[in-house]
Write a structure and sequence with these properties.
The chain is α/β, with parallel strands linked by helices and about 260 residues long. It has one domain: Vaccinia Virus protein VP39 (Rossmann fold). It is about 40% helix and about 20% strand. The chain is built from 10 helices and 10 strands. The protein has helices at about 20-25, 25-35, 40-55, 70-80, 90-100, 135-140, 160-165, 185-195, 205-210, 220-245, and strands at about 1-5, 10, 60-65, 80-85, 105, 120-125, 145-155, 180, 195-205, 250-255. A 7-stranded mixed beta sheet has the order 5-4-3-6-7-10-9, sandwiched between helices. Helix 3 (about 40-55) packs across helix 4. It starts with a strand and ends in a 7-residue tail after the last strand.
C-alpha cells in the first residue's frame, strides 16, 4: 500500500492484473463472504439504510451496484422499490436473483447501460468502491445510470478514522481485494471529480448500530473488570486521535446528487 503525496489517497501499487482481480471473486469468495441466509441484524440494517434514503428522496427506482448475493435488493423489493442489481460475478448474479426476486444484470460500470433500462432515481454502492480498479472513472460512469438530480449512496471504510490511525499497516481492511482506501477528504474529492454535488459524508448506519460484544455468561468478575479497563483505555486513545484530526467513525456513507436538468 502507498499513499499519494498530493491528495493522501491510499492504494495498491502495483495494482493486481485484471485476471488476478477476477480470480478473487470465485464462487468460494461469495460462499465465504456472504453465507446463505440473512440474519435478523442484516435485515434490520438493510431496512435502516432504505429508511434513511427514503427520508431524503422518497421511493422509486434503485440500482444496487456490486449487489453480491442480493441482501439489500431483497429489502428494497419488500419496501416496494423498483429494485435492480448489477454485479460482474455470475455467481453473485445467480444468488442475488434467487435471494431478492429482482432483476439482476451481469456486468460492470464500464459497459453501457443496457437498452430498455431507464436511468434510476437512486444508485447504491455498499462496500464496493474499494474493490474497483478505477473508482473515480466508475463514479463518473454512473451518470448514465442515474437520472438528472438522482441520488448516489456510497459506503466504504474510512482510512481517516481512528482504527486506521491506531493500526496503520496492520489495519484489517488491507486485504488483496481492497485496492483503494478513502478518507472522508479523498472520497469527497473523488465524487467532485466525477461530477457530483451536494455531497454529505457521515458515519454509516452500520457503524452507528454496531453494539459491543456482550459479556459471556459466567465470565469471572476479574476478567470483566479487565475488559472495562481496556474499553476505557481504548476510548481515551480514540479521543486523543480525534483531537488530532481523525474521524470518530471507521465506516462512512457519502450521499451525493447528480446535477439536475436545470442546474448550471
Amino acid at each position: 500500500m502507498v499513499r499519494c503525496r498530493k491528495c493522501g489517497l491510499i492504494f495498491y501499487n502495483p495494482r493486481p492484473s485484471p485476471e488476478n482481480i477476477a480470480s478473487l471473486y470465485s464462487d468460494d469468495y461469495f460462499a465465504q463472504e456472504f453465507p446463505a441466509g440473512l440474519t435478523e441484524e442484516q435485515i434490520r440494517l438493510a431496512h435502516r439504510r432504505l429508511a434513511r434514503i427514503e427520508s431524503k428522496i422518497g421511493k422509486g427506482s434503485l440500482l444496487d451496484v456490486g449487489c453480491g448475493v442480493g441482501r439489500f435488493l431483497a429489502a428494497a423489493s419488500q419496501r416496494r422499490w423498483r429494485a435492480t442489481g448489477l454485479d460482474a460475478s455470475p455467481a453473485a448474479v445467480r444468488a442475488a436473483a434467487l435471494t431478492s426476486g429482482a432483476e439482476v444484470i451481469e456486468g460492470d460500470l464500464k459497459r453501457p447501460r443496457p437498452p430498455g433500462i431507464l436511468p434510476f432515481d437512486v444508485v447504491t454502492l455498499w462496500d464496493v468502491l474499494e474493490h474497483l480498479a478505477d473508482p473515480v472513472g466508475d463514479l463518473g460512469r454512473l451518470a448514465q445510470w442515474l437520472r438528472p438530480g438522482g441520488m448516489l449512496v456510497v459506503q466504504t471504510q474510512n482510512a481517516g478514522g481512528v482504527t486506521y490511525a491506531w493500526m496503520r499497516r496492520r489495519w484489517e481492511q488491507f486485504v488483496d481485494y481492497h485496492l483503494y482506501h478513502f478518507s472522508a477528504r479523498t472520497l469527497r474529492m473523488a465524487l467532485e471529480r466525477a461530477g457530483f454535488q451536494a455531497i454529505r459524508i457521515e458515519a454509516s448506519e452500520q457503524f452507528l448500530h454496531d453494539d459491543p460484544a456482550p459479556t459471556p455468561p459466567g465470565q469471572p468478575r476479574t476478567a470483566a473488570g479487565t475488559g472495562g479497563l481496556l474499553e476505557r483505555a481504548r476510548r481515551a486513545r480514540d479521543l486523543i486521535l480525534i483531537a488530532a484530526g481523525y474521524d470518530a467513525f471507521n465506516l462512512m456513507v457519502a450521499t451525493a446528487r447528480l446535477p439536475g436538468e436545470g442546474d448550471a
